Amino acid sequence: MAQEIKFPRLNSVIVSGHLTRDVELRYTPKGTPVAKIGIAFNRVYKNAEGTWTEESNFLDVSSWGKQAELCSERLHKGSPVIIEGYIKTSFYNDKENQQRKFVEIVATKFHFLEKSESTYEGSPSSEPAKGYNVEDNDQNVTDDDVPF
Questions:
Q1: 39, 15 in Cβ contact below 8 A?
Q2: 76, 79, 82, 88: CA torsion to nearest 10
Q3: CB contact at 8 A, 65 and 58
Q4: Closest CA to 37 of 13, 58, 57
Q5: Contact of 36 with 24, CB cutoff 8 Å
Q6: If you average pLDDT over every residue of the chain, what do you get?
Q7: Which of 51, 56, 83, 111 has the most other CB atoms within 10 Å of its CB?
Q8: CATH fold group of domain 13-132
Q9: Are 80 and 17 a contacting pair, CB within 8 Å?
Q10: Neighbours of 134 (CB within 10 A)
Q11: What is the distance in angstroms between the CA of the first residue and the CA of the last residue of the chain?
């Protein structure tokens, strides 16, 4: 009798990088905020010749609910961030009716690394903004609800 393998179901990602464009904030037909964010991040490794090499990577990130609105207010092209979330794959048909795959990070937490504007206006805090975590994100929205 074959024994069943107990395999952990992990889908967690943490990435740091910079925004490649301004945040695009929209709302679902039911009024749920959703933000689309582009992020660039680098990987450094030794190549076959033993030389350190830097490779740039790009991914799209989605953020939901209050977190999406906060990202729209606080982030802009070039902003440094740390994003925690999970990977989601979606499929759609293009104009030629060919099925395409779209991979993105769905953010569950952002760490804003720039000081907020209120810090520059004489706020006593000189610390960069803390991470923002939204537990009540509306993650049960279907792809039909997404306005992108």
A1: yes
A2: 40
A3: no
A4: 58
A5: yes
A6: 84
A7: 83
A8: OB fold (Dihydrolipoamide Acetyltransferase, E2P) (2.40.50)
A9: yes
A10: 18
A11: 49
Alpha-helix residue ranges (DSSP H) falling in 15-132 = 65-74, 117-120
Which residue, chain included where needed, has tokens 């393998």?
5
Are the CB atoms for 89 and 102 separated by under 8 Å?
yes
pLDDT per residue as tens digits for the range 52-100: 999 999 999 999 999 999 999 999 999 999 999 999 999 999 999 999 9
Alpha helix ranges (H) inside the chain:
65-74, 117-120
CA–CA separation, 101 vs 22, rounded Å?
24
Q: Which residue has the tokens 């993650």?
A: 139
Domain-wise residue ranges, the chain: 13-132
- DSSP secondary-structure letter at 135? T
As given in the structure block, the two tokens for residue 54 are 């830097």
Q: What percent of the chain has pLDDT over 90?
A: 70
9, 60, 130 from 114: Cα distances, Å:
34, 20, 10
